[in-house]
Amino acid sequence: MKIAVVGLGIIGGSYCKAIKAYTPHTVIGVNRTKSVAEKALADGAVDVIGTPESLGEADMIIFCMYPQACVDFIKENGKFIRSDAIVTDAAGIKTALCPQLKSLSEEFGFTFVGSHPMAGKEKNGFGASDENLFMGASFIITPCGADKKAVNALASLALEIGFGTIKVTTPEEHDRMIAFTSQLPHVLACAYVLSPSCPNHKGFSAGSYRDVSRVANINSKLWSELFLENREPLMAELETLNENMNKLYTAIKAENRDELAALLERGHSVKQALGE
Predict the structure, then answer these.
(1) CB-hemisphere CA count at 13 Å for 38?
(2) What predicted TM-score, i.e. pTM, was given to this entire model?
(3) How far is 158 from 138, CA to CA, in rounded Å?
(4) Of residues 51, 57, 81, 65, the one with CA closest to residue 1
(5) Could you give the 3-state DSSP secondary structure of residue 15?
(6) What b/e sequence results for 196-207 when a residue is b if at least 16 CB atoms lie within 10 Å of its CB, and e otherwise?
(7) What pLDDT digit, counting tens, does each position of 18-45 carry?
(8) Does the pLDDT at position 120 exceed 90?
(9) What is the pLDDT of residues 198-250, one digit of tens each?
(10) Taking a C-beta distance cutoff of 8 angstroms, is the pair 159, 86 a contact?
(11) Max alpha carbon distance in the chain (Å)?
């Protein structure tokens, strides 16, 4: 296939590098900043620097942009996409995004299949991209009405470039679970490092500090968009977290050792039962 990747940040760049490293497909790289595309070409991550017009050459197009930027780009350039092309995104929200992209696919004639690669780093940009970023990771597909052939084509590419698990679900279930597994930890990490104690952590911290604070190194523009677009599921998870935090706070304040131990044991038992 000829695969176009639009947006050569950490995810888009990693897609390019992985496709070049592990498949025979040709990669067309499209990026707003020309110097980044030139770097990708020099590194061998793409075969050619593309333009919106060159999207017509692609059998598959992977959009690795902010959610609204993806919608805006297709609105402006969807006329260049072939009617037999498969188009996917890489966004961390689906309920707000997929209906818009599905509507655009019907307007311009291409096939849209939603997807979300569950991989990343605390760093951003093409310089942080890695051909092995997706190794063993989960690849979530939200078909959004696409036929089985298109879904299978996207799943096959994901497996080729190293993903270990393919999960097919609805946009709603995706967003509900991502609120818990991804967005809530980012909120928690940011709240944690806002403590006035944080600047003095060196010499007092080890693995616990590192594990909790790691994802506070956040792209604030992207994640604020993701949080707000998925605010209802995220707020529900925050309410549950606040309830559990309040129970622990109350037990500690009251010096209720039995209640505190029971709460801690419940957490221990849940984690132990999951075996991970």
Answers:
(1) 3
(2) 0.90
(3) 9
(4) 57
(5) helix
(6) eeeeeeeeeeee
(7) 999 999 999 999 999 999 999 999 999 9
(8) no
(9) 999 999 999 999 999 999 998 999 999 999 999 999 999 999 999 999 999 99
(10) no
(11) 68
